[in-house]
Amino acid sequence: MFIQTESTPNPATLKFLPGQSVLEMGTADFPTSETSGKSPLASRIFAVEGVTGVFFGTDFVTVTKAEAVEWDHVKPAILGAIMEHYQSGDPVMKGDEQAAGGHAEHSGEDGEIVGQIKSLLDTRVRPAVAQDGGDITFHGFDRGVVYLHMQGACAGCPSSTLTLKMGIENLLRHYIPEVVEVRPVNT
Length: 187
Prior knowledge:
It is built from four helices and eight strands; from the N terminus they run E-E-E-H-E-E-H-H-E-E-H-E. It is α+β, with helices and mostly antiparallel strands. The relative contact order is 0.17. It has a five-stranded antiparallel beta sheet with strand order 1-2-5-4-3. It has a three-stranded mixed beta sheet with strand order 6-7-8.
């Protein structure tokens, strides 16, 4: 098994490409080791000292390390954990745990606007941020403000504010006049 790695815009995060499917669909975010119990693969990766976050896409695993840890010290152990997982035959997610589809549900009078926001995120934004090892999902819409949840490499990325304000906010405002601002949420 040959696992490729790619850097991301976030220097604390590295993208691992195992060359096999990670999730059938959706994403799974494990911001702490305590949240990894439903995933044997995430648990194995968190066993590597210095790992602070794990995120799964359909064909990649994004790992975030502590600031004090060097990639040269943890990368071989992470590669070993991923390889060990795929050789074990264990599932990526336990039992009937499902990956998240992404967007939060929204009901109310802004349903049509929210549908347009989600559609633009799915077609224009999420594929681009997946290339960088992350995901950005809809969290809410209130009085012209779109709230987005940043995961994987996007969470804590130095350029995430620029991406939100200059990229996503401008895109949404261009296509949807009701949108006046985009803000991140920390969940």
